[in-house]
Amino acid sequence: MHVLTELGAALAAGTVEVVDLTTPLTPETPILQLPAPFANTVGLSMTPVSAFDDAGPGWAWNDLRLGEHAGTHLDAPVHWITGRHGRSVDRIEPARLVGPAAVVDFTAEAEADADALLEPEHLERWEAEHGRFPRNCWVLLRTGWSARGEDPARFLNADEHGLHAPGPSVAAAQWLAAHPHVSGFGVETVGIDAGVAGGFDPPFPAHHHLLGADKYGLTSLRGLDRLPVLGAQLVVAPLPVVGGTGSPARVLALVERTGA
């Protein structure tokens, strides 16, 4: 197929760049912490099996303990009560995991107010300027939050009142869930909801509405400032964990560099 041949040539020539949007996963990678009495998931821990020693003189490998929702990860519909009868991560159609990236720049709002809420008018303004969101797209909310990623306390941004991080309002979550072209919603923060969204009606509306509508979430993305508003293609690669409510994922964007 000529299209794939041309893509391969462009990748080899560097006119199409592969941009990694994934947060490196370490035991220190920040993960969501829910208040008591709710249970919390674990992050990453590694136990050596062998490392070029008597247990394995010619090889090294590790056992991993890892939460489904650690680091950059995908939320599948069955993660939330509204999607509990929907798709687990292994049942998501591969074609839904590859599609156009549509970047909504919300950086100024997030810098002015850590609790800034994305509203339908922001999304409608985007479509008025750039055209309707493309079919099977991932809407990526750029907030500049990934600059906090090396400092877990600053990244989670918690105080006695809870987390403070930008995200969609109830109305924006409904808007995205109802849009027929949107396959998923991605953020730079620890979760697809705003930090204060536990107090909304319904609580955590991005989870409630998007996962209930067979749309998917991506969290803890980095490098969104390297993407154009439109034109990049996103590749989301979660582990196909049978029955899984989500999975850590490698998220890549194919970006054309016209000046290359």
From TrEMBL:
InterPro entries reported for this sequence: KFase/CYL, KFase_sf
Record keywords: Hydrolase
EC class: hydrolase
Pfam families per record: Cyclase
EC identifiers of the protein: 3.5.-.-
UniProt key word Ribonucleoprotein: no
Keyword Magnesium: no
Parts forming coiled coils: none
GO MF term list: hydrolase activity
The protein, known as: Cyclase family protein
